[in-house]
Amino acid sequence: MFTEPKQDRRHVERRNRDKQLLRCERELEAATRITSALFENLALDELVVKALEIAIEVVNAECGSILLADSPSKQLIFQYSIGTSPIPSGTAIPWDQGLAGTVFQSAKPIIISDAQKDPRHLESTEKLTGYRTRDLVTVPLKRWEGDPIGVLQVMNKREGLLTEEDLAILTIVSAITASSIELHRTMAEKERIGSELRIASEIQKSILPRTFPPFPDRADFDIFATTIPALEMGGDFYDFFLIDDKRLGVVIADVSGKGVPAAIFMAVSRSLLKATALTCVSPSECLEHVNQLLCQDNESAMFVTVFYGILHSDTGELEFSNGGHNVPYLICGNRVSPVGRPENMALGFLNEANYRTSRTSLKGGETLVLYTDGVTEAMDAQGQLFSEQRLEHTLQRLAHQRPVDLLTTLVEDVQAFSRGTVQTDDITLLALQYRPAVVQELTLANRPSEVDRLVSAVARFAHDHRIAEPDLRVVALALDEVLTNTISYGYDDQVPHEIRVRLTLANSRLSAEVEDDAKPFNPLTVPSPDLTSPIEARSVGGLGVHLVRSLMDQVDYRRESGKNHLIMSKRLSGVAQPDTKAERHGDH
Amino acid sequence: MEITERKVGDVSILGIIGRLDTGTAEAFAQRLHQLIDGGERRLVIDGEKLEYINSAGLVVLMVAAKRLKVLDGRIVLSSLKPHIVEIFEIAGFKSIFPIYVNAEQATQQSSG
Question: What pLDDT, in 10s, does the model give residues A482-538?
């Protein structure tokens, strides 16, 4: 038996060690170059081409390709091909044929010294380019784990044949390339889902009424609502709609859960509620009906808490039914009180659930505030809740504001409270202020002393309805001028006459209509007095009518059935500050 | 309405308290013309406590001013509340009645 001399064995070992070192070095070089390419922020295509270039260079081959699997067509598609006679991008082969198909299916690499002798070799692709493959390495394109997403092929080493060492290097290149492709694909998918979510969130928001004021010609109520979802899609919603001329429906609701499932359930609930409400049923009938519809086919066991109220705009009566929702508040003057009590069951739970209608009534200036638990359960940095108590105090402080200002300030307060924390629940609010037209009629005799009585009555009216002092002064002066004029100059006989004055407060506008049977007199035809001449040239006439026309926003006159009708109106500049003494007195 | 009166040098200062309206304008007019009849030519109307004025009150002031103009006299106002000034402005009275911030200034400007 021949034994190798010791010297030679050591020599071989050293040579092997050197070879191994060299191979490690080449592997490292390839990995380093591809990794640094990864950090160049290249687009996916550029990155893959770069990886392929590096692979070919390091193993000193003529050309190479990356084929990616296309599941629907069960094909491997030449995506990238570089070097001598590259194969056109898009060329496809069945994913279970040829050397590439074999590697892809088995997830095991192949190294071949003469492709032409291998029966698995497909000649069809070569015919495409006229290129003749000699030796080749095909490695599955895959991460260290998992299934291949394609294959990487390198052909025709420039000196000698492709070796196991080359295969090892190409395996590293393949793994890094596969990871990059998969990472890009995941990110693209995430981005797509993200943008679809954003679109869905927009759609969801757009199904809630968002134009304020929603009914510009309705001055007898003032409504505002807002919702701030915690995630892109929320489960809260509000709604309002005119059932008919005299009935306004208001809804607030909170769907269990968050995100897409809650949003879909929300959209369904909202549509069912509105559609049912518009059939003019009572609040409890509406909730009962919607509950039954939601209970059918509710496999996901979702539910929704709902408060549904109907305001009768002529009387101020509020009918409502509460399906497990937070009890709303009513702001009356400086007092904030709950509307009803927690009762009934959320919708979607129990097909047979019963709902009850309760009643209360709103007086002029009173405001109904609906909210979801995202308001009271907003948390500060110390983990304290905003709480119902804080909500009540805030409503008390904002008692005299109009719905839009009330809710804007309230939301700011809640957000300031929970600053520095992540909003975990939707915040949804709706405020409805009842502002019926207020009418007061007075009948005066045509005596000068009656003007004082009128002025006192107007002052009382202004106080009762929170008309600010400057607005009161203007209207009182205008009425003084008109009545003084009529009483002083309107009648030639000595008979008592009646003068009727009607004050109307509606839509932040105070109107006064004066009806008398005095001589026809249209103040709008009185010429404006001279306001600029020196004193000696001025006349003393026409000042009263001039004051009326200047101070009021609108003055109209008509003569009808033997009577003068003068209608004057003034848009109110603001709401009077509440007289705290009077409020306290009123409470006793 | 009440009227207070005081005299500083040759200037008569009339303070009006309350409302100068159709019911009170006549009394105010009477007092003004009595003073002018009695030879007063420099008048200051102190409006510090004037709460209300309507066209009847404005007319009284204008008639008195016209009369004094002929007699080489003068009538000025002082200490008017902003909402009264607004009425004066609308009525075009600011160009014919000097308005001073207080009675002292009005008196100084009127005397001599």
Answer: 999 999 999 999 899 999 999 998 877 899 999 999 999 999 999 999 999 999 899
Structural tokens at position A537: 């040239």
Which spans in A65-163 are helix H? Answer: 98-106, 124-129
Structure confidence at residue A322 (pLDDT): 97
Residue A577 has pLDDT above 60, yes or no: no
Chain A residues lying within 8 Å of B69, measured CB to CB: 535-536
CATH code assigned to A207-434: 3.60.40.10
In the structure encoding, which two tokens stand for residue A465, read together?
Answer: 């309805």
Domain ranges of chain A: 21-186, 207-434, 438-580
Q: Is residue A445 predicted with pLDDT exceeding 90?
A: yes
What's the sign of the alpha-carbon dihedral B66, B67, B69, B73? negative
Task: Confirm or reject contact between B18 and chain A (CB < 8 A).
Answer: no
A374-428 per-position pLDDT tens digit: 999 999 999 999 999 999 999 999 988 889 999 999 999 999 999 988 888 889 9
Residue A118 burial by Cβ neighbours in a 10 Å radius (0-12, 13-18, 19+) = middle
* DSSP for residue A530: P
Question: For the domain A21-186, what is the CATH code?
Answer: 3.30.450.40
Superfamily name and number for B2-110 = STAS domain (3.30.750.24)
Residues within 8 A of A (CB atoms), B 51-80 only: 52, 54-56, 58-59, 62-63, 65-66, 69-70
Is the complex ipTM higher than 0.90?
A: yes
| Residue ranges of chain A whose CB lies within 8 Å of a chain B CB | 448-449, 451-452, 470, 473, 477, 480-481, 484, 488, 529-532, 534-536, 538, 540, 543-544, 546-547, 550-551
**Residue B2, strand partner residues:** B17
Contact A253, A270 (CB under 8 A): yes
Taking the CA of residue B52 and the nearest CA in chain A, the distance in Å comes to 9
Contact indicator for A97, A109 with CB cutoff of 8 Å: no
Are A340 and A322 spatial neighbours (Cβ–Cβ below 8 Å)? yes
Judged by CB atoms closer than 8 Å, whether chains meet at B54 and A550 is answered as no
The whole-angstrom distance between B3's CA and the closest CA on chain A is: 20
Please provide the DSSP assignment of A486-524 as one string.
HHHHS--SSS--EEEEEEEEETTEEEEEEEE-SS---GG
- B53-78: pLDDT as tens digits: 999 999 999 999 999 999 999 999 99
- Residue A544 Cα, gap to closest chain B Cα (Å): 5
In this structure, the number of other CB atoms found within 10 A of the CB of residue A10 comes to: 11
**Alpha-carbon torsion, ordered A574, A575, A580, A586, to 10 deg:** 160
| The predicted structure's pLDDT at residue A5 | 57
Contact indicator for A103, A109 with CB cutoff of 8 Å: yes
- What pTM was computed for the model? 0.56
The total of other beta-carbon atoms located within 10 Å of residue A113's CB is 14
In tens, the pLDDT along A452-484 reads: 999 999 999 998 887 889 999 999 999 999 999
Which positions in chain B touch A478 (Cβ < 8 Å)? Answer: none
Q: Which CATH number fits domain A438-580: 3.30.565.10, 3.40.50.300, 3.40.50.360, 3.30.950.10?
A: 3.30.565.10
Among A149, A130, A128, CA closest to A140: A149
Q: What's the rounded Cα separation, in Å, for the pair A106 and A166?
A: 20
Q: Across residues A546-557, what is the average pLDDT?
A: 96
SS3 assignment, position A189? helix
